[in-house]
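quick one before i forget lol
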Amino acid sequence: MVSLLLVVRPLRRRAGRTMLICVAIYGLATIVFGLSKNMLVSLAALFVVGASDMVSVVVRSSMLQLATPPEMRGRVSAVNWLFIGASNEFGEFESGLTASWWGAVPAVIVGGIASVAVTVSAALLFPKLRRADALTAESLLEVERELASAEPVD
C-alpha cells in the first residue's frame, strides 16, 4: 500500500530527513510490537514497521542510484545488493541468537532501541544525509557542493 502511495504521491522535499524519521519510526513501532499484549496493537505496530521501512528503502535506493556517477551505477548497485543480502542473512542469525539468549520479547525491544539509537547517531554523524532534499541527482549534488564550499568548523 505504501509503495503504491509513493507512486501516486512521490516524495518531493526533505528526502534525507524523511528517511531518518521513518527509520526512527520503524524502531519505535518495533518497540511497541515487542511490548504489546494486544493483537490489534501488534498488527498496527507491524503495519507501521512495514510502511516506514518501505519509505526508507525507497529513499535509500533512490539516493544510491542518483548520487552515483552513471558509469559506476551498475557496480555500486551490485555491491549494494550483495551487502543487503548478506546483512539480511546476518540479521536473521543475530535475531535468532539474541532471542535464544534473552527471549523473543526482550530481543525485539532491544532491536527497536538499537534501531532508534543508530538512526539518531547517523543523523548526528552524517548531516549531509539530513540535508538531502529532493530525490534528484541535481539536489544531491547541490548538497555536495554546499558542503564542499562550507568553512571548516573548529
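fyi Residues 73-102 form the longest helix (30 residues).
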